[in-house]
Amino acid sequence: MRLKSAALFIFLWYIIAFFTELPHPHEVAEKFFYLLFTPEPVLGKTLLDHTWASLLRVIFASSIAFCIAVPLGILTGWSKRLGEILMPAIEALRPIPPLAWIPLAYILFASFPNTVQISQIFIVFIGSFFPCLISVFDYARNVPEEFLEMAKVFRADEKLVLKEIVVPHSLQGILTGIRIGLGVGWMSIIAAEMIATSGEGLGYFIMTMYQVGGRVAEIVAGMAMIGVVGYLMNSVLLKAEKLVMPWR
Questions:
Q1: 64, 155, 167, 214: which has the fewest C-beta neighbours closer than 10 Å?
Q2: What does the alpha-carbon distance between residue 217 and residue 230 come to, in Å, rounded to a whole number?
Q3: Every domain of the chain and the residues it spans
Q4: Would you list the DSSP string of 165-181?
């Protein structure tokens, strides 16, 4: 089925390329594999170098986001009082797109060294944090009532209920939140690198290829790398879900 889907995609691509200035799939593939290990003359780095730079920022920023979002999501979901205090502010901030934070990030981190890199990490943090928090919060809030009633029968205290019932029930929300948050973080870093250039990264590569004369094959090759990395990250996390929760 995947081969059929890929074949259909390539077929449609050839048709669109025939009527537009979009490069053909074989041209993009040739450019992609050439740039993978050969430094691009203008930027002096390979496509792998730019990919690794973007990926490191996403992993670093997302890890910080998840370390805060997971426990906060569990606590706000379990504690009604804490949820009533924090969730209105979270719901007000959550709809703001990560890119809308870029000007504010520049102001907040203007006095820091490497302002651009720190701002990019902050943008990825914002993009990863809220999806993970909301996913964990929903699962922690919706623990089945029969589980809680059973805990009351056995006179379990709050700490034990949280440890043995709420956290295990939230596991699906944690894994789903991480997968969605990492995807949003990956999209956020590409856009942030296109707006706030730092000399490396896939977003910077694509924007530079556009600015030096609209080199479409290189632009599409960069986009293809974004898709490949995003697909691989999602696949790895889905396999991790199956390992952690084989009953699913």
A1: 155
A2: 20
A3: 25-244
A4: IIHHHTHHHHHHHHHHH
Tell me the residue type at 124: V
Q: What CATH class has 25-244? A: mainly alpha
CA 39 to each of CA 209, 219, 228: distance values in angstroms, whole numbers, following the listed order: 13, 15, 20
pTM: 0.89
The chain-wide mean pLDDT, for the chain, equals 89
- Please tell me the number of Cα atoms within 13 Å of 94 on its side-chain side: 15
Q: What is the pLDDT of residues 18-65, one digit of tens each?
A: 888 888 999 999 999 999 988 888 888 999 999 999 999 999 999 999
Which amino acid, one-letter code, is at 166?
A: V
